[in-house]
Design brief:
Structural class: alpha+beta
CATH topology: outer membrane lipoprotein receptor (LolB), chain A
Oligomer: single chain
Order of helices and strands: HEHHEEEEEEHHEEEEEEE
Largest sheet: 14 strands, antiparallel
Number of helices: 5
CATH architecture: Clam
Shape: globular
Number of domains: 1
Strand content: 35-45%
Number of strands: 14
Length: about 250
Amino acid sequence: MVALPASLAMAALLSAGSPPPAPAEPGAPAPEGPAASQPEKEPAAALLRRCMAAYGGERAKVRLGRVKVTGKVTSPLHPGEVGRYTRVFNRTSRLRMEIAFPGGAPDVRILDGVRAFRYGEPVAGPIAAALQLHAARLDLPALLLEWEPRVMDEGEVTHQGQKVRVLGLEVAAGQRIEAGIDPRSGRILYVHGVSRGGPREMDAYVVYGDFRKVDGVLVAFAEDSYANGEPLGQVELSTVEFPDDVPESEFLP
């Protein structure tokens, strides 16, 4: 697996995630070994429905389809600095992300369906793939329910000392997301995104925390991002809105 350069690492921070870090060394969750006796595993379909209910059921399906957030971001790429973070998402594969660190120009990235832009210019490759994976993970858990027949049960792993169930979905050719779901609460604790469609494989995770209810919908206010086991940064949300409509202008380069 090729390590991400700083520029691509920031792309992943903007639109992908991290491996659930172990206490001593970062890395992907460890698969569970065989046991002498295991309780019967909950069917993936039942787990998906409990997950959707945990996020707010039908209300969450609708509200999470259009989300606007603001917050702050820190990153090893900008040591000692705190940046401004904004994100607008529309379920129609539309995403606008902006990060601005003190003294620098805002880094604006836009996904408009199959088109991707950075600084107003069309982009492809890793940045476009990262934005596409990010848009997919923002549509969880509804996306998994929508494509339930294609969802693959990846079994159990250990994430931060607890067992989670992993459900995977290929969202496009060469692009895959895997959601680590707490079988007790139904919450998605991390999302693993993989893109193998270009010259460089991208393997990234986002780990969620600080879950709160906003207008009856469960939202993770903390997002820790990693790539290839290395920390990329942390996003802490301060506001979360579910607008009735998102202007087209939000997704213009």
